[in-house]
Amino acid sequence: MITIKDVSHRYTMGKKAKETVVPVLSHINFHVQKGEIVSLVGKSGSGKSTLLHIIGGFIKPSSGEVAINGTEITSWDEGRLADFRLQHIGYIFQNFQLIPSMTAAQNIELPLILNGTSKQIRNQKVADMLRQVELEAYPHHYPSELSGGQQQRVAIARALILDPPLILADEPTGSLDSDTEAELLALIQKLNKQNGITFFLITHDQEVAAIADRQLEIKDGQMLQAKGVMPV
Ligand SMILES: Nc1ncnc2c1ncn2[C@@H]1O[C@H](COP(=O)(O)OP(=O)(O)OP(=O)(O)O)[C@@H](O)[C@H]1O
C-alpha cells in the first residue's frame, strides 16, 4: 500500500546567497502492506510529519521514490496528485480541521460535492457514514456543538467518505482525553478489520502505538530497525 524507497529530504531556507540546508530524512526504506495498521514514533523534530507529507504527496522528497497502492507518484504534478489523493488517501489531524460554519453532515458531505456525486447518493452515503461512526443523532450539530471525540469522528467520517484504501493520521488522539481516545482507537480498529482500511499513524502515545500491527521508529531522520519492519 505504501512503498518508500531510499527517500531523503532536506529543507532549504533563506535567500540564494545565504541559503541554509536542513537535512531532515536520510535514506528511508519501508513498506506498509494493505490492511495493516502501522504507527510511526519518534521524538519531536525527528522528521515524522515531513515523512507523512511526503507519503501524501504534499512534499516532494529531495531524492528517492514513493509508491501508493502500486502507483509511483514521486514525479507527478499537483493537479494529478490532488485527484489521486481524493481517491486513495484520507487524512486525520490532531486538531480535526473541520469547517466551523458547516454541520457534521455538511463536513462529511464535502468531498462528495468536490467529487461531483449526485445529491441522492450523497444523502445515502452521509447517513451511512454517520451510522458507522455512531453519530446518527448529530447530523445538524456544528463542530462547536460537539465534543472533541465527536469532532474527531466527523473528521474520520469525512476522511472515509470516498472509500480511500489508506488513512494517514497525524497525532489523531493528541487532543482527546483517555476515555475518548480509547473509543477512537476502537473505531480505528473496527474500520481496519471490517473495511480493510490501511492506517499509517504518527503518534507520541503508547496507547495508539499499541493498536498497530507494527511500529516504525524514526530518530534524527533515520529509520531504526524497529520490530517487524520489512526493508524494501
Ligand atoms: N518547511 C520547513 N522548512 C524548514 N525546516 C523545516 C520545515 N518543516 C520542518 N522543518 C524542520 O524539519 C525537522 C523535522 O520536522 P518535522 O515536523 O517533520 O518533525 P516531527 O517529528 O513531525 O516533529 P513533531 O513531533 O514536533 O511534530 C525539524 O527540525 C523542523 O524544524
What does this entry show, briefly?
The chain is of the alpha/beta class. 34% of the residues lie in helices and 27% in strands.
Task: Describe the model.
- With about 230 residues, the chain is of the alpha/beta class.
- The protein has a single domain, classed as Rossmann fold (3-Layer(aba) Sandwich), CATH 3.40.50.300.
- Helix content is about 35%, strand content about 25%.
- The protein has a six-stranded mixed beta sheet, sandwiched between helices.
- Strand 1 and strand 2 form a beta hairpin.
- Helix 3 crosses helix 4.
- The two termini are about 15 Å apart.
- The structure holds adenosine-5'-triphosphate.
- The site of adenosine-5'-triphosphate has 12 residues, from strand 1, strand 2 and helix 1.
